[in-house]
């Protein structure tokens, strides 16, 4: 009789599934507020699609964790959503938020599949990638239809094949720099969008958080995003390069929170983690030394901001501990 080997989840599989549960349980609350306050029917259909995807993820992970005898994370629930709160952001922001999270999902699930071993888990991440791909395409199509799509900067096509003649191509930390490469422009344009999404979200949170300490924390995060956008613009400007159009006027005057302080702080930390990952990717694609140094400094600033947020979550007992290995020293030195 043939024996079927069913290995347990690897650490990478477990981590991605756990993180997806936390992010999507939060996302369902945010999307529910969007759904309750949206006006544009095209954006509403997009929100419905995003909600359906997130709910499917939660059900799948719940069933899998039950089967594997893994505790279901607490995550976020109706307790973190205030359904009667008025809208905090415009429909255009709803669209940009979903587009941004869709772009992040594409990166997350492609990597998750690449580091997964079990066939069923690889198939699962493949399915989720396709769902996210459809959602991202839908968001892009809606933005194009509404005339709000922000295109990355353009450059002239090259006329001939050329080769680098000296190491000045790598640039220095000071002085005049060579013109930007297309890939460097691409990362700068994308990160302008990333910072705009975070800056706007945190400014909205700074209006409505119940805790005055968190209101100031969210304002600090919004100011960091604004400063980083200015930095990216200056580099593009110095190279006489076009840059993405800006957008504002996306926050209402509401001071009534649609979400719990716990959810908003978790979302702030998640956005910081996404931005750090995007900046890290940009470093890998940026050959000029000054640009790499700039991203490293911005990452350090974001890391400090995220650490302060994590400390606040720990103080409030809001930080749910991810799966981890056993503390062997603690087990050995226990007092029986």
What does this structure look like?
The chain is an all-alpha fold and 336 residues long. It has a domain at 170-320: Ferritin, core subunit, four-helix bundle (Ferritin). Helices cover 65% and strands 0% of the residues. It has helices at 11-37, 41-68, 91-114, 119-146, 182-208, 212-238, 261-285, 289-315, 328-332. Helix 1 (11-37) packs antiparallel against helix 2 (41-68), helix 3 (91-114) packs across helix 5 and helix 5 (182-208) packs antiparallel against helix 7 (261-285).
Strand coverage percent: under 5%
Could you tell me the radius of gyration in angstroms?
22 Å
Summing up helix and strand content along with how strands pair, one would put the structural category as mainly alpha
Enter the CATH topology name of the domain at 170-320: Ferritin
Mean pLDDT rating = 91
| Main sheet properties | none
Q: Please count the helical segments.
A: 9
**The CATH fourth-level homologous superfamily of the domain at 170-320:** Ferritin, core subunit, four-helix bundle
Low-confidence stretches: none
| CATH architecture label name of the domain at 170-320 | Up-down Bundle
SSE run: HHHHHHHHH
Task: Please tally the β strands and state the result.
Answer: 0
- Helix coverage percent: 55-70%
In CATH's first tier, which class of the domain at 170-320 applies?
Mainly Alpha
Distance between the termini: 46 Å
Overall 3D geometry? globular
